[in-house]
Design a protein that fits this description.
By secondary structure, this protein is an alpha+beta fold. The chain has five helices and 13 strands. The chain has helices spanning 3-61, 70-78, 148-151, 192-198, 217-230, and strands spanning 83-91, 95-107, 118-135, 142-144, 162-165, 182-186, 211-213, 234-242, 245-256, 270-275, 278-280, 282-284, 292-300. It has a seven-stranded mixed β-sheet with strand order 5-10-9-8-4-6-7. Strands 1, 2, 3, 11, 12 and 13 form a six-stranded mixed β-sheet that branches. Strand 1 (83-91) and strand 2 form a beta hairpin. Helix 1 runs antiparallel to helix 2 (70-78). The N and C termini lie far apart (82 Å).
């Protein structure tokens, strides 16, 4: 064999190794790039189903039908290439659950060399809604269960305004003529002054003891003004005295329709309110529904056990 033939044989061997190496390189690229792209879309579609499930749950919480268009809209808002693959609504005793699924077809760049042109990426999220057994962002203003506003409430949400007196000429079991139907509630005694300024960010769970802070009318007026300035309904606790123990027996959604009346006869001191529906985050579900509904994600891709 002469030198020319040997060179030709070596060139052929090098070409074979280069071709083999190219296949290995493309395979690695397919794993590194295409798999990374799949995982990126996996997170995106999961985010889309999370948003869609929460939006649909909030719609059902106020009497709407979240699966009729809300879920698909939120999937599209979060990932335009994804499509809603399913939306199911299941009612429970005190609320319900929404199961939302979405899918996206991810086209590969290098994997077609291996015969894999695309992958279907799917995600599923379940969200719950229902009457609150605990809620976030409850304002530090409580309504006594023995007050005229509550005792005249009845079984549903009254449509008109109700004037809630701050001082009562006939003191209720929840307080004296100095505090009346209203009290500031804080997680610890003595913290009500700070709670008035910043709201009440902690979660309140009914049937747990709560500390009642008695304060002056001006402090309550300041808290009412802060709520009115936000122009949003808020959740407030309804409490009752059981002996010497104060317990929250329900959570109510209200909006303040006027400023606090701070001058006049005791029966004229108070604030006008309207009971309404408030949707927030928290714990589900209470047997007593006073307008505060909570929503939240209870399962994502089969993980989680909080679903009703």
């Amino acid at each position: 064999m002469n030198g020319a033939d040997l060179a030709a044989d070596e060139s052929g061997a090098v070409l074979a190794f280069v071709a083999l190496g190219l296949v290995v390189f493309l395979g690695c690229a397919a794993i590194a790039i295409d798999l990374g792209n799949v995982w990126a879309h996996r997170r995106a579609v999961s985010t889309a189903t999370d948003a869609a499930a929460l939006a649909a749950a909030q719609e059902y919480a106020v009497g709407g039908t979240g699966c009729s268009g809300v879920a698909a809209d939120y999937v599209d808002r979060n990932l335009t290439d994804a499509v809603l693959s399913g939306c199911a609504h299941v009612t429970t005793g005190a609320g319900g659950r929404i199961d939302v699924g979405a899918a996206v077809d991810v086209q590969h760049w290098f994997a077609p060399v291996l015969g894999i042109g695309s992958s279907d990426v799917v995600a599923e999220t379940s969200a719950f809604y229902g009457s609150a057994s605990g809620a976030d962002g409850v304002r530090p203003i409580g309504l006594c269960a023995a007050s005229p506003a509550y005792t005249g409430w009845g079984g549903g949400l009254p449509s008109g305004e109700i004037f809630v007196p701050f001082e009562l000429t006939d003191p209720s079991p929840c307080g004296t003529g100095d505090i009346g139907a209203w009290a500031l509630l804080g997680p610890w005694c003595g913290s009500a002054a700070n709670a008035v300024a910043s709201g009440f960010p902690e979660r309140i769970t009914p049937y747990q003891p709560a500390c009642v802070e008695q304060t002056d009318i001006g402090s309550v007026a300041q808290a009412v003004a802060a709520v009115r300035a936000a122009e949003e309904p808020v959740a407030i606790p309804i409490f009752e005295l059981f002996g010497e123990t104060t317990k929250i027996v329900a959570l109510a959604g209200v909006e303040f329709t006027g400023p606090m009346v701070t001058e006049g006869a005791p029966g004229e001191l108070g604030v006008p309110i309207r009971f309404t529906t408030v949707v927030t985050t928290g714990d589900c579900c209470a047997a007593v529904d006073r307008g505060v509904r909570v929503v939240g994600i209870c399962r994502a891709d089969g993980t989680g056990t909080r679903c009703p």
